[in-house]
User: What shape does this take?
Amino acid sequence: MQVRIEELPKKQLIGKSVRMSLVDNKTGEVWRDFQLNKSVISNTIGTDLYSIQVYENSDYFENFSPQTEFTKWAAIEVADTLNIPNGFTSFELSAGLYAVFVHKGTAQEFQKTFQYIFSQWLPNSDYDLDNRPHFELLGEKYKNNDPSSEEEVWIPIRKK
Assistant: This one.
């Protein structure tokens, strides 16, 4: 699996969020709600969507438990957050260094990509995991639940 290292500039997003765990997965719910109402967001930049995970504890992966909660976001980039429609919230994706991978396949196959990143690539790289949001960038090649779907997986990193 190929990886590229990118310096992400700060981004302003508008979206919807939910607290969840992997055991109590609410990804579908937050995305359905976002997709049904995203047309009211007027100042979007492009059409790429952001599926963001905010892990409050820096040791989320070291002491992994599928019951540990995190915040899941469904969002889109905007020019500014001066006009936030009712029911939506702003989110600032801070600037920083990211390792970017391409996941090909369905969401059910994502575990293989995730496992490669955290059990093979990261331990053998020149980087440590950074305590910033993780996200998937859903661009023009993303097709929900389609085996030919592609999405970018952005993992926050810092030099060892």
In short: The mean pLDDT is 93. The CA atoms of residues 14 and 90 lie 4 Å apart. The two ends are 22 Å apart (CA to CA). The chain has one domain: 3-159.
